[in-house]
Amino acid sequence: MSEIVDDIKFIDEEGKRIDGRRVDEMRPLKIEAGVLKRADGSAYLEWGDNKVMAAVYGPRECHPRHMQNPSRAIIQCRYNMMSFSVSDRKRPGPDRRSIEISKIISEALENVVFTENFPRTSIDVYIEVLQANAGTRVAGLTAASVALADAGIPMRDLVPAVAVGKADGHIILDLNGKEDNFGSADLPIAMIPRTGEVLLMQMDGHMTMEELDLALSYAKKACQEIYDIQRDALHRRYASQAGTEDDNDDDDDLPDEEA
Amino acid sequence: MADEVVSQIKKGHIHKLLSMGRRMDGRSADEYRSITVEAGIIGSAQGSARVRIGNTDVVVGVKMDVGSPFPDTPDRGVLTTNAELIPMASPTFEPGPPDQNAIELSRVVDRGIRESEMIDLQKLCIVEGEEVWINFLDIYVLDYDGNLFDACFYGAVAALRNTIVPAEKHEKGDDYPMPLRHYPIQTTAVKIENSILFDPALDEEMVADARLTVTTDENGDLRAMQKGLAGALTLDEVNEIIDTSLRLSKGLREIIG
What is the rounded average pLDDT of the residues A58-69? Predict the structure, then answer.
């Protein structure tokens, strides 16, 4: 594939990208909280052509037992791509990539959850990628933190995340699939806007120091934008719960007469 | 699925209601919960559908690839069905390879699709004995609130009905719709004491004595069946369930589209 890289122009004369975005413009992001019944908390996210579901169970008894921590809860994340989420069918089940992503997402979330409130328990976070188009790990983390909040788990803050990359010699925000395939650098990052703390960061490819500064400034701005969308999703979730009392109530099983 | 627990109080309550001819959620015995089907929701799949029955929620994708036929069917495409009970869907589902519940589920869905000859596998032969289309039918359960058998089956049927064979991508000519011959419909009923209930919700499934899944085609012929759980069914009950299944199948076919 690499021989055709030079033929693709990722930025046109007007500074627009192949999908018409500016270099510092995100793909459209939609988040909905509380979309699953059985899970304690959940969120569904569409971000460009990414479709991601996140669900949270817990705090609950920790399995396997030897992983229990007597002083705090542990966060166990499972990031998974559905077999049909990518162009060539992915074999179902975990691979090395998804295990690594699960680990760094767990660690990022552990930072914001008040794990010390729930010793010896596990908070299980499940991320399923239904359809993938670059940036699924940041999409997964963004959805997971909304699902944690939807589960009512005490948190210091939400965790917005985004990827910045480089294509055609330009730093660009939130790469799409094509840009990601032919890009020359990728920097996924999660940053809490309120404090500026970085909770997840990876990078591969090649960037100068100036490019890194620019990338981080794009990321910072985008994280604020994502954070507002996350908050809005939770607002809508609680507004709808307040509006219809029985609608989202999970304990609706027994009619009165059983006593 | 067998690991779910239901309290004695709830169990007693379900039995008490049934003795008065009522169900927990007010449905009649042969009434399905509301079914919604969204087809073609996954752009990276050749065919897809998301199906909800009440709160049960599944997503099904079809991926197609070119491969070798089985030696005993050199002129037919291959169908492979896989169902995953992912831990997102229930507090009792655990990560890991498919357990016996997931395997029974995927085999029941596979049998309904295969035995009804829904897909014209002969039209999925490219070069006899050498190249055929391989269909991967992958099912993921997102939310488990009972009756996965039917939800997954409807998802599979709806996904296959909007599948496009990716011939161009594999340099096998123009893309074309999945060749289909029949339109099977499946129903699942459980027996609790002396009541037969269709589309069991989770609570009902947990206290069920026996289960019967029935697949019929658009001509009203029987194509597949699966009895589950330890309880027994009388032949009269089996006939009653098949009759009701046939009666329900017309309406279900309209909903699934």
Answer: 91
What SS3 class is residue B232? coil
| Residue B56: closest CA among B74, B41, B35, B72 | B35
Among A53, A93, A124, beta carbon nearest to B142: A53
Compute the distance between CA of residue A254 and CA of residue A244 in angstroms, rounded to an integer: 18
Name residues whose C-beta falls within 8 Å of residue A135's C-beta, 6 or more positions apart in sequence.
Answer: A47, A48, A50, A162, A163, A174, A175, A180, A188
pLDDT of residue A6 exceeding 80, the answer is: no
pTM, to two decimals: 0.88
pLDDT of res. B107:
94
Contacts of A36 in chain B (CB under 8 A): 57, 88-89, 142-143
Among B13, B44, B55, B206, the strongest candidate for a mutation testing the A interface, having the largest count of A CBs within 10 A, is B44
* Long-range contacts from A141-144, C-beta under 8 angstroms, 24+ separation: A141/A105, A141/A108, A141/A109, A141/A190, A141/A200, A142/A29, A142/A31, A142/A45, A142/A47, A142/A226, A142/A230, A143/A31, A143/A43, A143/A44, A143/A45, A143/A52, A143/A53, A143/A54, A144/A43, A144/A54, A144/A56, A144/A77, A144/A105, A144/A109
- Percentage above 90 pLDDT, chain A: 79
In B33-130, beta strands by DSSP E: 35-39, 47-53, 56-67, 78-84, 125-127
Domains of chain B as residue ranges with CATH: 26-256 (3.30.230.70)
ipTM over 0.90: no
Rounded Cα gap, residues B198 and B201, in angstroms: 9
For B145, which DSSP code?
S
Average pLDDT value for residue range A198-224: 94
| Predicted confidence (pLDDT) per residue in A160-188, tens digit | 999 999 988 999 999 999 999 888 899 99
Contact criterion met (CB below 8 Å) for A7 and A187: no
Residue with tokens 């012929």, as numbered in its chain: B221
Is the pLDDT assigned to residue A47 strictly greater than 80? yes
Q: Sketch out chain A's domains with CATH numbers.
A: 29-240 (3.30.230.70)
B10 touches chain A (CB under 8 A): yes
